[in-house]
Design brief:
This is Type II secretion system protein F. This protein is mainly alpha-helical. Helix content is 81%, strand content 0%. The protein has 14 helices and no strands. 19% of the residues are buried. The N terminus is likely disordered.
């Protein structure tokens, strides 16, 4: 017993002294990965969610998909493909949600610019003009401006509150709007209303053009999804039968399943890439 408690005490002392005995070294890969996940969460509307949550969900979903695939088919190759698909599903869903949010908000930013122009011309200060959007702004964007108002009331610092607002909105257009407001706040200028008015016209024209093109190209995504899902539905139906399971359990069957999975992913990505309009980058994000 004495040896046990001595070992526990030694382990405790070692853990307490570990930050000094083994200082953390600069790691490059993990921060970059966490930064990408945090940015994806911001763009999907989950700016305050922990960066490790998508990874946890991916592991759980991968385990569930692997279990279901193994119970239904009993094929290691199909189980491996199901594990990869389940693990990638949360990240695919987050990217899809980010695109839907960006698309739904695209037509609202011109209204935000017009409201800011009206507020500035009425003599309101920039913090008050942005805070007023919590009441007069588009309903879908009001929670972010309510949070900005709370930040301003708590800190009184426009720059830090504007940066948090930019992280919450996570879109290239509000990035430009907020950077314009920050520049005007720092150096002043009489051209703010003209710049916002020109930005509003540009955003409105871009949103109209993109909506028309995306409506005409919506069949591309539908065709890509059907082309990827249909073969795997057929594979699942064949693998349920004993002779089909025996065929896909052979070495040649495993190669067919793995190659089919790679071809499906590559073909889907190419089809979506060809039919997708280039999205503006967040240069000020």
């Amino acid at each position: 017993m004495t040896v046990f408690w001595g070992a526990v005490l030694a382990a405790g002392v070692l853990l307490v002294a570990s930050p000094w005995l083994w200082p953390a070294t600069g790691r490059v890969e993990a921060p970059a990965r966490d930064g990408r996940i945090a940015r994806l969460l911001q763009e999907a509307g989950y700016a305050h969610a922990p960066a490790g949550r998508p990874g946890t969900v991916a592991m759980l979903l991968g385990a569930v998909c692997a279990s279901v695939a193994w119970i239904v088919t009993g094929l290691p190759a199909v189980t491996l493909v199901a594990t990869a698909a389940g693990s990638a599903a949360p990240f695919v869903w987050l990217r899809s949600r980010a695109r839907r949010l960006r698309r739904s908000r695209r037509a609202l930013w011109s209204d935000v610019c017009d409201l800011l122009v009206s507020a500035v011309r009425a003599g309101m200060s920039l913090p008050d003009a942005v805070t007023a959007l919590a009441v007069s702004g588009p309903p879908a964007l009001r929670p972010a401006f309510v949070q900005f108002g709370g930040d301003m009331a708590a800190s009184g610092h426009f720059d830090s509150s504007a940066l948090r607002l930019k992280a919450a909105l996570a879109d290239p257009v509000p990035d430009r709007i907020i950077e314009t407001l920050r520049m005007a706040r720092h150096v002043g200028g009489t051209e703010l209303t003209s710049v916002l008015r020109a930005l509003s016209a540009s955003v409105r024209a871009d949103a109209t053009l993109r909506a028309e093109v995306e409506a005409r190209q919506s069949w591309v995504r539908g065709a890509a999804i059907v082309g990827v899902v249909a073969p795997w539905v057929v594979l699942g139906l064949l693998a349920i039968r004993p002779e089909g399971a025996a065929a896909y359990a052979s070495p040649a069957g495993v190669v067919v399943v793995i190659v089919g999975a790679v071809v499906s992913v590559v073909a889907y990505r190419l089809t979506i890439r060809v039919g997708r309009l280039p999205e503006p980058q967040r240069w000020f994000g």
